[in-house]
Structure formats: C-alpha cells, structure tokens
Amino acid sequence: MHRLTILVITFLLISNYSYSKKDTLDFKTVDFKTYGYYMNQNWDSLIFLGNKALDNNIDYYYLRIRIGVAYFEKHKYQKAIIHFEHALKFNSQSEFAMEYLYYSYIYSGRETEASLLSKSFSDSLKSKTKLSKFKIVSGVYADGGYIISNNEKKNQNIDFDGSENLFGEADLAKDKYYFHLGLQHNFGKKLSIYHSYNYLSINNTKIVKTYNIIRVTDNYITYQHEYYINANWFMKRGFIIIPAFHYSYLKFKLGIINKDTVLKNYIGSLALSKYFSNSNVSLFLTYSDFDTSRQIQAGLLLTVYPFNNLKLYSTTGLINKNDFSPPPPQESGHKGPNTNITSGFVFYELLGFNYYKNNWLEISATYGNLKNYNEQNAMIIYNTPDKINYKLEANLLFQLNNKIMLSFGYQYWDFTGSYLMQKSTVPKDIQTINTNYQNHLITGGIKWNL
C-alpha cells in the first residue's frame, strides 16, 4: 500500500510538470502556431492563443496583425481596431495594418478617425481604397424636416379670459420647418472640424381676449438662424476632446407692436470621449444663456456594442440640467434671492440595430424638462418658450455605398404650454395656466463622405 501511494504521488508530480511544460508559451511556439492558424483561417484558435500570448507578455507586429485580422473576419471590428493600432506602433508605415484599420473604423461607424488615418496613406493605398489625394471638404451633411403641431387645433377655443371675462393672452406655436447644412474638414492626423448652418421657421398665433371678445388674432412667424462649430482633437491613449460653440439669432415681429424683436443666444460645450474594446464613454459640460436665464448641463453618455460592431448598440445618457434665472419682481421694500435655481435630470436611451444588410433602425426616448436643453455636443438646441416633457424618436438609416447614407425619421414631442389670465380687477392678479399639445416631426437627410 505504501509503495502504491508513492507511485501515485510520483505520477501526479510528473503529469503536473509535463502539463506546465506544455502550457508554457514562448515566442517560437506562438509565432509558429498563430501563423498556422492564420494560414488555415482558424480564427477562434488564433484569437485564443494570441490573447494568451499577450497575457504572457509576448507582443510583436505580426501577432497583432494576425489577431486583428481574426477579429476582423469575425466582424468584431471594435476589437480589431485595438490590435491594428498596436501593430502600427510596431511599424507605423505598414500599409497592410493601415488598410485593415481604416475599414475597421468605417465598419464601426467611426468615419472621422478613418478619414484622419487616410492622411497617412500612400498614393497607391489611396487608389486602392478609392480615396482622393486632397480634400478641403471631407464630408457634407444635409437634412430637413417639417413639424406638425396640434397646439392651435387643441387650444384655440380655450376661454382665455376665464369666467370673469377680464383679460387673457396666449401665444400658440404651430407648424414649423427646419433645414441643416454642415461641412466636415480634416486637418492632419489628429484634428477634424465640423460646422453648420441651421434655419428654423415657426408659425405662431397671438390671441388677446377681453370681456369675452377676442380683440387680437395676430399670426406671425419666428425666424431662427444658427451657426454651429465643433472640433474633434484625437489625443494619445484614444481620448478625444470636443469643444463646441453654437450661436442663435432669433427674430419675430408682432403686428400689434410693428417692431422687430431680436434674441441672441449662445452655447459653449466641452466633451471628453474615449473608445474601449466594446464601448464608448463621453463626459460633457455645456453653458448657455437662453431667455433671461443661464443654463449649465453636465452629463454622461455610455454607448455599448455587445458584438463589437454595429449589429446592435445602445446609448444610455444621464444629464443634470441646472437653470439660473432672475427672481420675479419683489414688492417694494422686500428683498428676495438674487437668483432662482432649478435643477433636474434628463434621461436618454437609444437602441440601434442592423436589421437588413446595410440598413439600420434607431429608436430613442428622452425624458425630462427639455426647455432650454441642448444635446449632441450642443449641436441641437431646444430654446422653445414652452416646456418639452419628453421626446420619442425613430430613424431609418440606409447605407447606399461607402460614401452615401440616407436617413428618414419621425419624432413625437409632448409639450406643456401656457397662457395668462387675469382673475380679478386687482392689476397684478394674473395667473399662468398650463395647456398641453403635441408635435410630430418628419425628417429626411443625406450624409456624403467625399
């Protein structure tokens, strides 16, 4: 029995030693086996052994190339990007790595990085990927939409001056349309700039009612011109800094006043973004001065790509919105606070998936007080006089080829409007009463990478 025990222990020690020797990786073994897997297109085994080698501090150009190609062939483009970027650190002139990295960026929806990378392409590689040698403008974006509102239909017959029939006043925002035209410019390998012009036209009706008679029905149009610019500065370790500026010029003229009213507003924004293997994290801060108040927004956006490509992705956002407004007029001799501060959260959720070939569907919801709110690095602003309670959105994206994408969308908005009504003969006894209405937005656009 004693001899049997010794034999068993000896066998186990020898087996464990043999396994350890077999499990030990060295450069020669890794290079030989990964090359064989690569030539035989055994992508799963290549990925397994390649990542194991990296864990054992075996890292070199051809290993990164092979792992990157394996991920690329399995359509896991986000992971492929990591390895091709590392390959270029070993050999910055590798056109093989550049080409694969370029298409990995494209298939991950990171066109700006692909375009900046192409600045390093040789003429032959530019010809192979069908890129022009020099472009002042690298992309053109245009979209527009028409907004159908039920505000007038739903609220025009309200008894604005109330049961006392003293005084009532309302401004009803009705149908709108907008147009957006933007240009993308790439400078060097690290900087891209996007700027755009936006135009918005809003039909409105002002109603003034006294003693149960409508005294004024004034139809007028609000015109809004906007200029927007941002910069994407690609830094080391994959960080992207995005400063942005948005200027708005709004003008309207009421017939009863016969004088132009002009409002000028601006927004400054700063965002920090970084891509990881299957996600993107963005932190941002914005400052704006809509109406007579100021707004500060701070938020986090998390985008997850569970399959490391654009087959399925989701974006979750949490934004803290703070509004600093002047206090209402105080009674004589009474001092109130210098500033009224209101704070709240806005929640955002988007789900996108590739439902057929190069076609995508995106659905999203934004919930919270969206009055004087901005999104997409301050590119879109909501400086409406009425409160926006939530927004639902659906977009269809059609990639016609590697340069042109078409989009068609629908948005549903829920608003809280208001009107003024005098409750008694006391001059200051004026009450603000809320109403509700909805907007429907139909959009269409084109994105053209030159």
Account of the 3D structure:
The chain folds into two domains: 127 residues, Serine Threonine Protein Phosphatase 5, Tetratricopeptide repeat; 311 residues, Porin (Beta Barrel), CATH 2.40.160.60. Helices cover 24% and strands 50% of the residues. It is built from nine helices and 16 strands. The strands form two sheets. Strands 1, 2, 3, 4, 5, 6, 7, 8, 9, 10, 11, 14, 15 and 16 form a 14-stranded antiparallel sheet that branches. It has a two-stranded antiparallel sheet with strand order 12-13. Helix 2 packs parallel to helix 4, helix 3 crosses helix 4 and helix 6 packs antiparallel against helix 7. The longest helix has 22 residues. The relative contact order is 0.10. About 4% of the residues have low confidence.
List the helices and strands and how they pair.
Blueprint: H1 2-23, H2 27-39, H3 43-55, H4 61-73, H5 77-90, H6 95-107, H7 111-117, H8 123-128, E1 139-149, H9 151-155, E2 167-187, E3 191-210, E4 213-234, E5 239-254, E6 259-275, E7 279-288, E8 294-304, E9 312-325, E10 340-356, E11 359-367, E12 373-375, E13 380-382, E14 387-399, E15 404-422, E16 430-449
Antiparallel strand pairs: 1-2, 1-16, 2-3, 2-15, 3-4, 4-5, 5-6, 6-7, 7-8, 8-9, 9-10, 10-11, 11-14, 12-13, 14-15, 15-16
Nutshell version of this structure?
The chain is of the alpha+beta class and 450 residues long. Helices cover 24% and strands 50% of the residues. The protein has helices at residues 2-23, 27-39, 43-55, 61-73, 77-90, 95-107, 111-117, 123-128, 151-155, and strands at residues 139-149, 167-187, 191-210, 213-234, 239-254, 259-275, 279-288, 294-304, 312-325, 340-356, 359-367, 373-375, 380-382, 387-399, 404-422, 430-449.
